[in-house]
Specification:
about 450 residues, alpha/beta, 15 helices
């Protein structure tokens, strides 16, 4: 049987087939964002199936982040379904255009991997990794734990995941179910927002300023039922925010009244920042902190170290055993070797990014343009006309990232990645931005 919504034909008699029919329409663009889907009973009647079958199909679509349901208002295709990742909003970079939109680290600051991989291969040859070995290599665990101790991260077991986002997803899956609400920074990491949709989780946006997420905003999100809080400790993407000691104390006070909330610290900026870490773990019963190697040692290493409370790490490691099993020990050996080799000087890397970031923020300020960038490799520029600024910058020979990739409810803006900037280019970029930007209201990133 089929059901026609204007020009789209729904098909299927099983829940999986009906869900697949809707996903096909979303993926092809025939069911654009905001499309109101047929009421379950109406669609069931036309398809000749039980209403429970359509209900199950819609439930599957919600869990996959394809649709959202608002009580009596019905079910609609999400404004940005999980099948349409935010990276698709990345503007094309024409030949000859300077790309300050990609968010990649400066390859000149990344270490060579040949020696570390050769040493890892030699260690593997001496003792090949076999089934049943500890998934975390002791050679990596020791420096990882020492680093956490030095930064005041509470004691806890360790796990190794395939990057920060993999670790965060595993922690969320360990405690939450589709439909649960999560307090997330706004603006925030686009991939994180995509992950929320893919897991069927509801986003409770929290306003951000230079010192991190607003304590009042977190309190409001928790009061509205958020079961988890995600915080980027340093080098927040896209704003460059870093949680200060004062803000951390305010957030801990809020969390102390909500001991049931899961708290996740994302420390992907480790190794490229010169501001201290102020972790939030240990205030609530369940917490985790994930530390990625991507920005300091190269995105292709795909490795992050995760710690947290005993229950969370037990669930994460148990589920990991039933999937990939473990992250390659060869990669773990290589990262451990990189940490001990001194090939990367975190202070020098942080200074390099800081000089370029600070120079751009200062140059924009001199031209009357407000910008933010306390840490990391990105600068956030609030604007009144985001689309217009992106287009004018492209016309001027610069590709900047549209803020829509990072926003839920916060105001418009553009993100500029400074990692590829040369000192002589800062003034040119600031001139182009000043010419492209329209006045934006003062305040936080909202």
């Amino acid at each position: 049987m089929v059901f026609v919504l204007e020009e789209y034909r729904f098909t299927g008699r099983r829940a999986s087939d009906i869900a697949a029919s809707v996903e096909k329409g979303v993926g092809s663009g025939a069911l654009p964002p905001g499309t109101l889907l047929p009421p379950m009973r109406e669609l069931a009647g036309v398809l000749g199936v039980n209403p429970n079958t359509v209900a199950a199909a819609y439930r599957t679509l919600r869990e996959r982040g394809v649709i959202e349901t608002d009580g009596r208002r019905g079910s609609r295709v999400r404004g940005r379904p999980a099948s349409a990742p935010r990276d698709e909003l990345r503007p094309a970079v024409p030949p000859g255009t300077r790309d300050v939109a990609s968010g990649n680290p400066d390859v000149r600051l990344l270490p060579r991997l040949d020696a570390a991989l050769a040493a890892a291969a030699a260690r593997y040859e001496q003792q090949p990794t076999l089934y049943g070995h500890d998934p975390v290599a002791p050679e990596l665990a020791r420096p990882a734990r020492a680093g956490f101790d030095a930064d005041g991260v509470p004691s806890g077991p360790l796990a190794v995941t395939s990057g920060a986002l993999d670790g965060i997803e595993r922690v969320l899956n360990a405690h939450l179910r589709p439909g649960d609400a999560v307090a997330v920074e706004d603006p925030g990491w686009g991939s994180m927002l995509d992950l929320m949709a893919a897991l069927g989780l509801r986003v409770e946006p929290v306003a951000v300023d230079d010192e991190g997420p607003s304590a009042a905003g977190v309190e409001q999100a928790l009061q509205r039922g958020a079961r988890a809080l995600l915080v980027t400790s340093r080098a927040q993407n896209p704003t460059g925010a870093a949680v200060s000691g004062r803000r951390a104390a305010e957030l801990r006070a809020v969390l102390a009244a909500h001991p049931q909330v899961l708290v996740i610290d994302d420390d992907h900026g480790h190794g490229i920042v010169d501001v201290p870490l102020h972790p939030l773990g240990g205030v609530t019963r369940h917490w985790a902190l994930v530390r990625s190697t991507a920005k300091a040692y190269g995105p292709d290493l795909r490795l992050a170290v995760l710690t947290g409370d005993d229950v969370t790490l037990d669930r994460v490691r148990g589920r990991q055993r039933l999937g990939p099993g473990w992250v390659s020990r060869v990669l773990q050996y290589a990262v451990a070797d990189l940490w001990s080799s001194g090939l990367v000087d975190p202070a020098a890397v942080a200074r390099s990014y800081g000089e370029r970031r600070g120079a751009l923020v200062a140059a924009l300020g001199e031209r009357g343009v407000r910008a933010h960038g306390r840490s990391g490799m990105n600068v956030w520029v609030p604007v009144a006309d985001e689309t217009g600024v992106v287009a004018r910058m492209l016309a001027a020979g610069w590709a900047v990232a549209p803020g829509s990739r990072f926003r839920v409810r916060s105001g418009s803006g553009v993100r500029v990645t400074v990692s590829g900037l040369e000192p002589a280019e800062v003034a040119l970029l600031a001139d182009a931005l000043a010419a492209a930007v329209r006045p934006a209201p003062a305040g936080r990133f909202d």
